[in-house]
C-alpha cells in the first residue's frame, strides 16, 4: 500500500514537472530569431532557471546596483520574447564574454553566445555599442598591432581610409577592454568611453 502511494506521488510529481517544462519551453519568435542569428545552437529552452549563471557573473553583480539584469533574467526575457528591455539594457554591452556563466550552467546553455546574438540584433536595430573602440582613419597606419592584442578578435585590417587600408572594429565583438589603445603606436584607436576598471568603479561609487 505504501509502495502504491509513493508510486502515485512520484507519478504526480513527474507529470507536474513535465507540464511545467512544456509550459516553459513555449519559446518566443524572438528566441528563435536569436538562435538563427547565432553560429551555435543556443538551447534556450534547456534553461530551467536555477540562476547559477547569475551567481558567477561579475558584471551582473555590479550592474544590479544600477539596473536589475542578470544572465538568467536575460535568458528568461528572451524566452518569453520581451525584446525591448533586453535590447535596451546596458548589460549586453557590459558583458565581458568571460563565459563563467556557461561553465556554471548544468544544462550547457551557451549564455555568452546568447549575449553575442543579442548584441548583433541590437546593432541591426540601430543601437550602438557605447564601449566599442573607435579608429581615427586619418592616422591609422594599418600596422596590425591592435589586431594581434585584441582578446576578442574584434579588429581586422580592411580596405578603406586615406591610406588604402585601415583597422576596423566590429562593435558586436568589442568589449571595450582598451588593449588596442594601449599598443597603438599612433594613438589611432581609442576605447570609446571608459575602461572596465572605470566602469566597475562607477558602479561601486553608486553603492
Ligand atoms: S559571459 Fe557575460 S553574462 Fe556570462 S558571466 Fe561573463 S560577463 Fe556575465
Ligand atoms: S595599432 Fe593603431 S596604427 Fe596599427 S592598425 Fe591598429 S589602429 Fe592602426
Ligand atoms: S577595446 Fe579591447 S575588445 Fe575592443 S577592439 Fe580594442 S582590444 Fe578589442
Topology diagram in text:
Blueprint: H1 2-24, H2 29-37, H3 52-56, H4 58-66, H5 71-80, H6 83-87, H7 91-94, H8 100-104, H9 111-124, E1 133-135, H10 145-149, E2 155-159, E3 165-169, H11 179-183, E4 189-191, H12 196-206
Antiparallel strand pairs: 1-4, 2-3
Helix pairs in contact: 4-12
This protein binds iron/sulfur cluster (3 copies).
One iron/sulfur cluster binds next to helix 11.
What does this structure look like?
- By secondary structure, the chain is mainly alpha-helical.
- The protein has two domains: about 1-125, Fumarate Reductase Iron-sulfur Protein, Chain B, domain 2 (Orthogonal Bundle), CATH 1.10.1060; about 135-205, Alpha-Beta Plaits, CATH 3.30.70.
- The protein contains twelve helices and four strands.
- It has a two-stranded antiparallel sheet. Strands 2-3 form a two-stranded antiparallel ribbon.
- Helix 4 packs across helix 12.
- The protein starts with a helix and ends with a helix.
- Residues about 10-25 have low confidence and may be disordered.
- It binds iron/sulfur cluster (SF4) (3 copies).
- The site of one iron/sulfur cluster (SF4) has 15 residues, from helix 11.
